[in-house]
Design a protein that fits this description.
Helix content is 18%, strand content 29%. It has 238 residues and is an alpha+beta fold. Among the domains are: 85 residues, Rossmann fold, CATH 3.40.50.12820; 47 residues, ANL, C-terminal domain (GMP Synthetase, Chain A, domain 3). A 5-stranded mixed β-sheet has the order 1-2-3-4-5. A 4-stranded antiparallel β-sheet has the order 6-7-8-9. Strands 10-11 form a two-stranded antiparallel sheet. Helix 2 crosses helix 3. The longest helix has 11 residues. The chain is globular, with a radius of gyration of 20 Å. It starts with 21 loop residues before the first helix and ends with a strand.
């Protein structure tokens, strides 16, 4: 190592071309003593359901991170039981390059949140009129920071729709923030189901259904209803 470079570290990254091939992914993981593993909740669920995954050597694993979609509690608990590491949830989006919040890497157990804002990042929870909401109340997550885009290329109309006058990006995600600064994503704003004026979020219903031992996987959507406007429909894999 050249003089002055003592603080640099070399890392080998293994890019999985087809992560849907769970058997092939497990066989690839078996070749290495990997220290960090990142994926989405559905991937971790599929891995935990594969008996060969539990036979891998996790003694070198330092960080297991989940992002891209809401992390289900049942998945997080099963993954921790198998690997011995807490599955760390983070949140971001392409327009924010892409990380906005992340949980501490020394988190002891699943906490249901996607963490706290990363350095130099401001967040706000706002209502439809753009007013800030109090702690604990659900609203649209808005973010401002050096990683947030200036706008969409050659799309001033779309830029004006998502960027506020004070420099915040409207993420389109419904979230809450607690008194310690931890953010919890409730669901995508456009995925919310309006049942007779009651706000039903698919992710919350899915979380409950996944606790049932007879449910392997589930997807919840809103469908038209002549009485209530919309109603909840669950598509279940037994």
């Amino acid at each position: 190592m050249p003089a002055g470079d003592q603080n640099r570290r070399g890392q080998c990254a293994d890019l999985i071309v087809n992560p849907r091939d769970i058997g092939g992914l497990v066989r690839e993981l078996a070749k290495y003593r990997f220290t960090c593993f990142a994926g989405v909740s559905t991937l971790f669920k599929a891995l935990c359901d594969n008996p060969e995954f539990s036979r891998l050597d996790f003694t070198s694993l330092r960080i297991a991170a989940s992002g891209g979609s809401a992390l289900q509690e049942a998945v997080a608990q099963k993954c921790q039981a198998i690997t011995g590491k807490t599955l760390i949830e983070a949140y971001g989006l392409t327009e924010a390059s892409p990380v906005v919040t992340c949980n501490p890497t020394d988190l002891a157990e699943f906490n249901g949140s996607c963490g706290v804002p990363i350095p130099s990042t401001d967040i706000a929870i706002r209502n439809e009129d753009g007013a800030d909401l109090p702690i604990g109340e659900a609203g649209e997550l808005c973010v401002r920071g050096p990683q947030v885009m200036k706008g969409y290329w050659n799309r001033p109309d779309e830029t004006a729709r998502v960027m506020t006058s004070d420099g915040y990006l409207r993420t389109g995600d419904i979230a809450t923030i607690d008194e310690k600064g931890f953010v919890r994503i409730v669901d995508r704003k456009k995925d919310m189901i309006n049942v007779s004026g009651f706000k039903a979020y698919p992710s919350e219903v899915e979380e409950v259904l996944l606790r049932h031992p007879g449910v392997q996987d589930v997807d919840v959507v809103g469908i038209p209803d002549p009485v209530s406007g919309e109603r909840v429909k669950a598509i279940v894999v037994r």
